[in-house]
Amino acid sequence: MSVVSPIREHLVTGGKTYHDVTEDICRHVEAKPTKEWKVAFAISVLVLLYGGSWVLWTWWEGLGVWGLNKTVGWAWDITNFVWWVGIGHAGTLISAILLLFRQKWRTSINRAAEAMTIFAVLCAASFILMHMGRPWLAYWALPFPNTFGSLWVNFNSPLVWDVFAISTYFSVSCLFWFIGLIPDLATIRDRATGVRKSIYGALSLGWTGGAKTWARYEDVSLILAGLSTPLVLSVHTIVSMDFATSVIPGWHTTIFPPYFVAGAIFSGFAMVQNLMLVTRVVYKLEDYITLEHISLMNKIITVTGSIVGVAYITEFFIAAYSGVEYEKYAFFNRAAGPLWWSYLAMMTCNVLSPQIFWFKSMRENIVVSFVIAVVVNIGMWFERFVIIVTSLHRDYLPSSWTYFTPRMGDIGDYLFSFGFFFTCFLLFSKFLPVINMAEVKSVLKSSSEKNSKQ
Amino acid sequence: MADKKYLVGIFNDEDVVMDAVQKIRSKGIKIHEVFCPYPVHGLDHVLGYERPRMGVPAFLFGITGTSLAFLLTFWTLGIDWPMNIGGKNFFPFPTNIPIVFELTVLLAAFGMAFTFFFMEGLGPSVKPLIFDVRSTDDKFAMAIDLNKNTISDSEISSFLKEVGAEEVNVKEV
Question: How many A-B residue pairs are in contact by the CB < 8 A criterion?
Fold first, then answer.
C-alpha cells in the first residue's frame, strides 16, 4: 500500500504508465533527428568551428590575441573557466546531494543536469589549455618522474590542487553519469534491432535488471553520491583558493570558498533551468518536467542568489572593517571605479533579479523563469569578471593603472566554449535518453495521478 | 539442446511481485531471480539476499588512495627533492589535504564501480541472458529454475498464476 500526501504535487502528470515512460523517452533516441534538432545542431557546429578557429589562432599566435596587458594578466580566460566550472556544479548537486536528501523530484532532471556537468567541465578545462599557451605541455601539470631537474609539481599550490580536483571531478562525474545510464541503455537495447542493438548492447554492459544487481546498484549509487557531495564542494573551494591564497586585495578573503560554492550552484541551476525549459518543449516532456520542477528550481535559484548577495555585502563590510587601506580601496574601486557598470550588472542580475521568484505566479511562469535564468548566468559571469578584473586593473602602482578591453581573441575563444557545449548537449539529447527512465518509473507508483485516484 | 529450463512468471506491479515472492518462497520453491525495470526497494530482502555491502570495496580502495596520495606528496616534496618554498616546512601536512582527498575519492569511486561490474559480470562484450525483454520496460519477470526445484512444472506454473502472474512462459537455455 502506498500513501499519497494530499498536499504534494504529483511528480509525473498525465497518468503515465511504465510503458508510457519508456515510449516517451526512447522515442527521441529511436526517431530520426527532427528539423529543429538539425538546425540547432548546424548552428552549434558553426559556432564551434568559428570559435575553434580562434582557439587555434590563440595557440598559433600566442596570448597576445587577448586583451590582456601588463597589469591585467588574467581576464576572460579565468572568468570563463570559473563560470563554466560553476555551471557544472548543479549537475552533481541535483544527482548527488538531492539523492542524499531523498528529493524525488530530481529524477526527471538529473540525467540532463549530469550531462551538462560533464560538458561544462570540459569547456572549463579548454580555457586552462588555452591559457597555457603551449597546450602540448599540459602534462607538465602532473607529477611524473622526469629529468628536468627538481621538477616535481608543487603540491602546496592551489593550481596543482585544481588539476587534481577538476580531473577527479570530471572522471567521477562521468562514472556516475554512465552508471546511471546503464539500465536505460539496456531498455533501448531491448527495443532495438541491428547495429543499434549491438551498440547499445555493448554500452549497457549486459545489464539484465535482476533484483540482486539492482540492490547492489542502488548501494553503489548511494555511495557514489556520498563521495560526489564532498567532491563537488571541494572543487569550487579549490577553484576559489586559486584567488583566496594569493595576496591580491579583493581576492585575499576567507569567505571565498562558501561564496564560490553558492555561486556555482546558483549559476548551475540557472543553466539547468534554461536547458530543461527548452528540452521539455522540444521533446514534449511537459508531463515529466512539470511546473512543480520549474518552481522548485526557481526556489533554489532564489536561495542561492540571496546567499551570494549576503556574501557580496559581507565582503564589503569586512573590507571596511579590516582597516587595510588596499583592501578598502579594492572594494571601493569595484563599486565606484571605472568598471562600476560590471559591478552593477552583477548586483542587479544576481541579487535583485531572482527575488521576483518570491511570487508564486512568477515562479511558475515559463517565460519569466527562462529570462531570469539567462539573466542569472550573465550576472554570474560578471561576478567572476568583477572579482578578477577589477581587483587587478588598479594595482599598487598608480602609474600602471589601466583598463581592460576584450579583443576578438577573447570573444572568439568564449564562443568556442558555447559551440562545444551546445554541440555536445545536442548530441547527448539525440543519442541518449534525456530523462532517467528507471528512476522516473520508481517514483511513478507513489506519485502519479492515476494511482492516487484509485 | 536445452540444458536448462526456466519458468518465467510475468507480473505488472511491484507490490504484487513482492507479495508473490514471499508466497512462493514460503512454499519452498527456489526463485532464480526477479528482473525489474527499476529498483524495487525491499525486493532483495524478501528474496533472502544479503544486504549489499559495496561500502567495503569503496572503503578499501579509498584508503588505498589516501595512502598512495600521502606517499606521493610526502616522498616527492619531502624526500626525493625537498624544495624550499618561502622557508616553509618541506612537508606541510595541511596543504596536502586537497590532493589526498581527491585521490581518495577517485580511487574509491572507480574501485567500487569496477568491483560492482566484476561482481555482477557486467562488461561490454557480455551477452546477457534475458528471460523477457519487457523486464527492462514495464514488466517484472520472475525466473524459476526447474532443474533446481523438485515440485512439478505444472504445479509451479499454476501457483505462479495464483499469486498474480499475468502470464507464465517457459524459457529453455
Answer: 189
pLDDT confidence of residue A16: 79
The answer to whether the CB atoms of A22 and B138 lie below 8 A apart is: yes
Q: Which ipTM did the prediction report?
A: 0.91
Residues of A in contact with B130 (CB under 8 A): 190, 208
B5: alpha, beta or left? (left if phi > 0; alpha if psi -120 to 50): beta
Asked if A402 contacts A69 with a C-beta cutoff of 8 angstroms, the reply is yes
Euclidean distance between CA atoms B155 and A107, whole angstroms = 41
Q: What is the mean pLDDT of residues B3-10?
A: 84
pLDDT at A454: 38
Q: Which of A158, A187, A439 sits opposite B136 (nearest CB)?
A: A187
User: What's the pLDDT band for A353 if we cut at 50, 70, 90?
Assistant: very high
Closest CA of chain A from B1, distance in Å: 24
Cα separation values, A24 from A17, A21, A37, A446, B7, Å: 11, 5, 17, 20, 31
Tell me the C-alpha distance between B108 and A295, whole Å.
36
Per the model's pLDDT, the better-predicted residue between A95 and A3 turns out to be: A95
Q: Contact B52/A216, CB-based, under 8 Å? A: yes
A294-300 contacts at long range (C-beta below 8 A, 24 or more positions apart): A294/A363, A294/A364, A294/A366, A294/A369, A295/A360, A295/A363, A295/A364, A296/A105, A297/A109, A297/A269, A297/A272, A297/A273, A297/A369, A298/A273, A298/A354, A298/A357, A298/A363, A298/A369, A298/A372, A299/A357, A299/A363, A300/A265, A300/A269
* Rounded Cα distance, A385 and A343, in Å: 9
Please give the single-letter amino acid code of residue A185. L
CA distances from A69 to A75, A291, A403 (A): 10, 48, 9
Closest Cα in chain A, distance from residue B61 (Å): 12
Q: Which of B120, B125, B127, B145 to mutate to test the interface with A (most CBs of A within 10 A)?
A: B120
Cβ-based contacts of A18 with chain B (< 8 Å): 37, 137-138
Find the mean pLDDT for residues B77-87. 81
pLDDT tens digits, residue range A424-434?
A: 999 999 899 98
The cell for A103 is 528529493
Q: Is A413 exposed, middle or buried (0-12, 13-18, 19+ CB in 10 A)?
A: buried
Candidates A18, A179, A215; nearest CB to B137 = A18
Q: How far apart are CA A228 and CA A319, in angstroms?
A: 34
Which candidate, A297, A314, A302, A298, places its Cα nearest to that of A259?
A: A314
Please tell me which residue of chain A has the smallest CA distance to B130: A208
Cα-only R_g, chain B: 25
The closest alpha carbon to A332, from A244, A322, A246, belongs to A322
Q: Which residues of A touch B95 (CB under 8 A)?
A: 155-156
Residue A416: pLDDT band (50, 70, 90) is: very high
pLDDT at A41 over 90: yes
**Closest-CA residue to A347 (of A357, A358, A334):** A334
Q: Can you tell me the distance from the alpha carbon of A95 to that of A435, in angstroms, rounded to the nearest whole number?
A: 12
Which cell numbers hold the place of B111? 574501485
